[in-house]
Model the fold of this input.
Amino acid sequence: MNTKNMELEKPIDKVTLLGVELQPKEEINNEHKAFSPKEEKTIEKREFHPVENYHPENDRHLHSTGIRIFGFSILLFIILLCIAFLIFTFVNSKNENIISGISIKGVDVSGLSAEEAKETIQNYINENLPENINLVHNEYETSIPLSALNVNFDIDSAVEQAYETGKSGNIFENSFTALKTWINPMDIELTATLDEEQLRTALNDISSKLPDTVIESGYYIEGNNLIVTSGSEGNVVNVDQMCTYIKNGISNLTLKNRTLDIATVSKQPSEINIEKIYNEIYKEPVDAYYTQDPFAVYPSENGLDFAISLDEAKDMLSEEKSEYVIPLQTLYPNVTTNMIGTEAFPDMLSTYSTRYSTSDRDRTTNLQLAASKINGTVLMPGETFSYNQVVGERTIAAGYKEAPIYIEGEVVDGLGGGICQITSTLYNAVLYANLEIVERSNHQFVPSYVTASRDATVVYGSIDFKFKNNRDYPIKIVCSVSGGIARFDIYGLRTDNEYEVEISSYVTGSTADSTYSEAYRILKQNGQVVSTELLSKDTYKRH
Done:
């Protein structure tokens, strides 16, 4: 016999269900004697017998069924997921463009071809890069042209990385990568480069132009004096910091329509280093020399030195001054270029002479003085000859005499009269040597010693005669005034392609007051005209 059942058959004195005590029927009836018989029957039906209604095997069955349903659901989900992944893998394998979720510098390039992505990024850069980097310091404004910095964005590498993402592995790796970027987008950085050396040069240039920039000590030569200047404190551009600002701004494309404040630092001027200045300006004189195999002329060079000792210069700087003046002296070579003999100039390039009257001694003196200043002059290739500079001012102290000259259409005595004959003679020699004429003016009247358009006049301080040695070898000018003949010879080195030079001049017309003329230089080779050059068109007054 089941003891558990026997125990249950005993009368229940009291049962507690969900915290409520249930009393036996007799007790209930006694407590509620006022109830009707119908109500008593209702209460009898509420007798609780929990043990008789509980079946544990039902719970085990429900639990097993739930596990089977859950497992089936998981399996179904995995199958569907695999199918979806296979479909995604198939679709992704056919994609020849950039996968979804890829951007470059924040610009979405998903679904674009490589060329389309390059064009898109290039357009984005063009829209966001300024033409100039605008800078300001207080009231001072300036800019750096972006074109000067050679800015370059490595678009090809960025697009290649974007395109290869999800395409560089096997089919499953590529699909996982594509799925990953779809869920978690990827932004590719765009590398920018620029010419930092040029940027620093531009910033240093700006630094020197700041209104409140530091004034460095310095020096310059004025005449026969060295002028040394003291500096003053000021601001300079913080080049390192500005380089960082600008490079980041360009890289991040944040400079358009912006003006950057120039970062500056305070700076004291450097101390005057007189020994350094001395070493920079001191120069030993160099003697001229030449070689003949091959022919070459090496000109002389003047030297330069302090006219006082270095210790005396240091003592001068011990005083607090804004400017110091140190005298200089020129050191001359033992052999100047003009001292080199004609053996260094083997070929006569041209010669020309004019006649003068030996009876006019004062005029003859003037001719000889001017010619002596020019005689022996050596002109290096590319160097320009100035008559007024070489001959100098015509003064009594220089030995010049009063002689006839033209002033305002009249012939009067003037200091240095006649030296224009030397100018005109030299002018014609220069023409025949096929040298380049830089400056030449004609007289008021046609002179007696040359024909119209073959003369050249000079007035110290206003009218000069200049020509340039346009040959590849130095030339030497040799001249003499003697026996009624003023002669100029020009020496140098002939080349294989020398020209035959002809000068043609003639009067083109005249009026009661004026005569008109022209001059041409004709170059020939082997008797054939190569070129014809108009030298001048001149107007002369008639006597």
Summary: Residues 56-93 form the longest helix (38 residues). Confidence is low (pLDDT under 50) at residues 1-10, 15-20, 25-35, 37-45. The longest strand covers residues 528-541. Residues 134 and 259 are 5 Å apart (CA to CA).
